[in-house]
Amino acid sequence: MRILHTSDWHLGRSFHRVSMLDAQAAYLDHLVEAVREHSVDVVVVAGDVYDRAVPPLSAVQLFDDALHRLAAAGVPTVMISGNHDSARRLGVGAGLMARAGIHLRTDPGDCSTPVVLRDTQGDVAFYGLPYLEPALVKDGLGASKAGHEAVLTAAMDRVRADLASRPDGTRSVVLAHAFVAGGEPSDSERDITVGGVAAVPAGVFDGADYVALGHLHGCQTVTERVRYSGSPLAYSFSEHAHRKTMWLIDLGAGGDLVAERVDCPVPRPLARLRGPLGTLLEDPGLERHRGAWVEATLTDPARPADPMARLLERFPYTLSLVFDPERAPEDPLASYAQRLQGRDDQQVAEDFVAHVRGGSGPSAQERTVLRAVFDDVRVGDGIDEVSR
Q1: Where does residue 362 fall: left (phi above 0), alpha (psi -120 to 50 degrees), or beta otherwise?
Q2: Which residue numbers delimit the Nuclease SbcCD subunit D C-terminal domain (predicted)?
């Protein structure tokens, strides 16, 4: 069976205030064409269809059009909700859509109810694990505790139990939206840390023939059978070195697997330039970036006059300007941002407590309270969604 694995469309998202709607439409055109060109049997979308819980109408129209074209092509699509999506809104009409071959999996309670498709070598069961917010799904899944590894393990235990009840030779594909250890994050993903832990081990998914992951925006291989497709478009300058692709997976008899990357269209390349303003304006080696979206980091000791206007004359698509003066580490003017670089919210809060107490940091109990508060803030959107 030939599977096209994609994720993290983030329909409705902009790039530094530049609308990405046209680029997203071009990607969806490319997706439908790739389905035809490569004789794809099924499309899997591993979450973050939209960029926010209540997407703009333009994004909903893009999504609606894509589903109509995939259905018209006669190619089944299996799709899960991600942490940016509203699971309830995305799942509206799922029963009716399934009749057209569009299978939405947004309810954690349905994780062990697969979409079963058949090829010449037998059945393939597709299990959809939507983004599982630990605090919200722990009890429903019977997880041992409210952590990402615990709730995903509980969900996969249900998947393995269902798979064991199916005819011998049934192959399995699991869709999941999670941060799996070994994956490389970027600045574009929303933090899903709970209890100080974000990543889960790939071994959670043992038993599946292929695991189609979403959440991280770089296309990457965690293990031979566990892969991220990445986002089809770049949504931050941290993705400037990404090759944006989808995975074309051939799943043969006995679970044999062959993977190939299918490139996505690039609306405009990204460039991260760093140095004194004069160097960025005069270096002939930078001319190749004239047509790129540019993030310029100026290292001048003093802020130059009209830097953005001057940069735009040479690089008309400059979108981001950062000031990072190069100073000696002992310089008292070294920026606060530099001192915080590489430190997470928990560490910053603990350092602040130590500062106001004259060097005495928080106790173990206070650290637990701080972590719980940060976790509550991160799940706030999900809690609001349930209450609605």
Answers
A1: beta
A2: 267-355
